[in-house]
Amino acid sequence: MTSAFYLEFGRDSLRGTFLNKPVRSQRPDRFKKGANLEGLLANAAMSILDGVVPYGVLPGNHDQPTEYYNDYFGYERYQDEPWYGGHYGDNNDNNYQLFSALGMDFIVLHLQFNPPDEVLTWADEVLRSHSDRRAILNSHWILNDTGERCEYGDRIYNALKGNENLFLMLCGHVGWAEENEAHRVDIVNDNPIYQLLADYQNRSRYGFGWLVE
Fold first, then answer.
1. Could you identify which of 121, 149, 172, 205 might form a hypothetical disulfide with 153, taking C-beta atoms 3.0 to 4.6 angstroms apart as the criterion?
2. Residue 19 has what DSSP assignment?
3. What is the pLDDT of residue 19?
4. Are 14 and 52 in contact (CB under 8 A)?
5. How far is residue 167's CA from residue 190's CA, in Å, rounded to a whole number?
6. At CB < 8 A and 24+ separation, what contacts does 125-130 make?
7. Distance (Å, rounded) from C-alpha 211 to C-alpha 144?
């Protein structure tokens, strides 16, 4: 979905668009069950951001199995970047980034579609080890268009809600809904956790590459 936007505009205009943005976070279905052509296109699109802004990626349900995803977006691509925090296991299905903006320090955690329990345990450890940073979590599917969490979203939320630095959860996936947008706020120990759904893939020209600001 984002590929349509990045390929439509030139690198110079993108530099102007993204230079003042601290980080970009993507929750794709890029590879449509391992289609290599889509991998090439996604790589060309996301390469525009290389050296411009920090960004993070994660595999969606259509990126399973994740071999093609990791061929193009494996941890080796990012491991020398100062903002790349790390990954779980021997691939980049689950990873995190560190950045600072407006006098605040952040961590952005990217979790695969339907992360297993061991990944959620790792994610909890990562958030606890960076408790001094405001935490954003991005996963492919957390909310439905009604604002209710899906089964996978509930698992993620319940596993990580005890981290007081977690304030924002982002997702997509719900392309079949008419509005493709939803939000909710839950309060845990006086800590609000905002949850947002935005998915424009079924709108005209994939929503013209709309980005969530």
1. 149
2. T
3. 39
4. yes
5. 11
6. 126/85, 126/86, 126/96, 127/160, 127/163, 127/165, 127/166, 128/163, 130/85, 130/98, 130/165
7. 19
| Contact present, 177 and 206 (Cβ < 8 Å) | no
Per-residue confidence band for 178, with pLDDT thresholds at 50, 70 and 90? low
Taking CA atoms, 31 is separated from 5, 125, 181, in Å, by: 16, 30, 23
Cα distance between residue 128 and residue 149, in whole Å? 23
Architecture of the domain made up of 2-208 = 4-Layer Sandwich (3.60)
Comparison of pLDDT for 198 and 16, the residue scoring more: 198
Cβ contact 122:88 at 8 Å: yes
Parallel/antiparallel/unpaired status of strands 191-198 and 166-171: parallel
What letter represents residue 7's amino acid?
L
DSSP code at position 12: H
Q: Which of 176, 140, 121, 149 is nearest to 56 (CA)?
A: 140
Per residue in 193-212, pLDDT (tens digit) is 999 998 876 665 555 555 55
Written as six digits, the tokens of 180 are: 């493709």
Annotated domain spans of the chain:
2-208
pLDDT of residue 181: 85
Percentage of the residues of the chain whose pLDDT score is greater than 90: 58
